[in-house]
Amino acid sequence: MNTKEFGSGLGFADLHNHLYGSLRPELLWKIGYENPSPRWDIFTKPFQELYGKKINTESFFEDYRSKEDFEKLYLFNHQGPFPEFQAKFNLIIALSKFNPEEIRFVSKRVTKDQFEEGVSFGEYRIMYAPNDTYEGIYSKTLASCEGFAEVESELSGKASSRLVISLHRDGNVFKEYDMVKEMMEKDPIIRKYVVGLDFCYIEEGFPPKDKKEFLSQVQKDNRAETSTALTVLYHVGESFQDKTILSAARWVLESAEWGAHRLGHAIALGMDPNAYAGKTISETSSERKDTLTYLLDHWEEVSKYGEISSKERLSAELDSIRHKEKTEISITETQVSETKAYQEYCMDRIRNTSAIIESCPSSNEYIGMVRDKSHHPLIRFAKHGLKFTISTDDPGIFGTDIREEYRKAESLGLSQDQLEKVRKDSFLYTSEILSGRLPVKDGVYSE
C-alpha cells in the first residue's frame, strides 16, 4: 500500500492519542528553550538510571541544538519495557510549563499538525498531577477545549478534536469523576469538548475488578443524562510483566464485559502465547486464584475452544496455592494450548459486547509485549470479527503518524480492504457515539 495515497482526501480518526505525547521533537525543543524553569529533576535522574547517561542541564539546549541529536535523546523507537519509555516521556514533562496558555497552544498546534498528516478527527488524552487543585484542573481543561474550538474554526470544520481526561488508577476515581462532571456543568465549552475518561500509565497491580463499581456508575449516569455522557477508555492487556498472558487476557475480558467502551491495546487478548513458551512466569497467588476460579466457573464454555486442564487439576492447583503469596508458572506446551483456547473464548465473548479495541502498532512494537510481529494480535482480532481501530498513541515520541500506523498494520497482514473498513468504522467508534451522547447518524463520518 502506498501510504501517501491511502486515505488521501478521506481523513482518519485517531482515537488513541495522548496530547503531549504528540509533540514533535522540534516543537518540544522550542517549548523547553522558552521555558525559564524546566523541571529537570523529573527527567535527569530516571534517565541516567535507565540509560546510563548523565544530562548536563546547564548546557542542555546547546548540547541538543541539532534536530538529529535531540531526536536521539527524545524519540523512543526501540524495544524496551515501560519504565524506559517513561524515562523519555519525562522529558516532555520536564520541558513543558503545562500551564493554561501552553495547553491551549499545544491543543491547537497538535490538531493542525495531525490534520496535515491526514487526521480529521482526534481524541486526545490529558493527565493532571494528583495534587493539582480544582481551579488548576478547570483552567487547564478549559484552555485545551478553547484551543480545540479555535482551531476547528480556523480549519473551517475540516478537523475536529475532543478531550479525554485520564484518571489515576491509584486515586479516588469517584472524586475525580465528580470533578469532571462539575466542570462540564459549569462550562458549555467543556461540556462539548470533554467526551471521555481514561485509565493509563502503569497497568500492573491495578486489576479491572477494582473499577467494576465505577464502570457501572458511569453507565448508569450516561443513561440518565446523555448530554454529558462519557466513555471510559481503559488501557488493559498492554503490559503484563506481573502475570501470565492468560490472566492478562482475563483482565481484557472483564474490562469489556463490565462496561469499558474502548480497550487500549489489549495485546494479551490475541498475542500468540508461543512467545512465552519455555519461560517461567511469576504471578501473585491472588491473581492466579482469580484465573483458576474463573476457569473452574466457566469450564464447560472454555473447554469448547480447546483442551484445557481438568476441573480436578485446576482445583488441586487452587488448593496448593491458598497460603502462598507467589506462584511460579512454567509455560509448557499444555499452557500454550490452554491459553490459546482461553483467548479464543475471550474474543468470542468480547465480540458480543460493544467494546472497541484500540490497536497502536508502533507502541505495541516498542513498549508493548510484542517482540516478533508474527505474534501481533491484530490479525487474530480481524479473523474473529472484533471491532477495532488503528491509532498512534504517542506519535511525537514514537516518531510516527496515522498513515505509518496503517502501513504497519498492512505489514502485519491486513488487506487494503480491511484497512479501509477500519478507517471508515473508526468514525463510528468516537466517544460521543459510544457513550450515547450522539446517535450514529449525527456522528462524524468521513467519506
Automatic annotation (TrEMBL):
InterPro entries: A_deaminase_dom (IPR001365), Ado/ade_deaminase (IPR006330), Metal_Hydrolase (IPR032466). The lineage of its organism: Bacteria, Pseudomonadati, Spirochaetota, Spirochaetia, Leptospirales. This is adenosine deaminase. The keyword ATP-binding does not apply. SUPFAM superfamilies: Metallo-dependent hydrolases (SSF51556). Keywords: Hydrolase, Metal-binding, Zinc. One of its GO terms (biological process) is hypoxanthine salvage. Its cofactor is Zn(2+). GO terms for molecular function: adenosine deaminase activity; metal ion binding. Residues 344-426 form the Adenosine deaminase domain. Its EC number is 3.5.4.4. The keyword Translocase does not apply. GO terms for cellular component: cytosol.
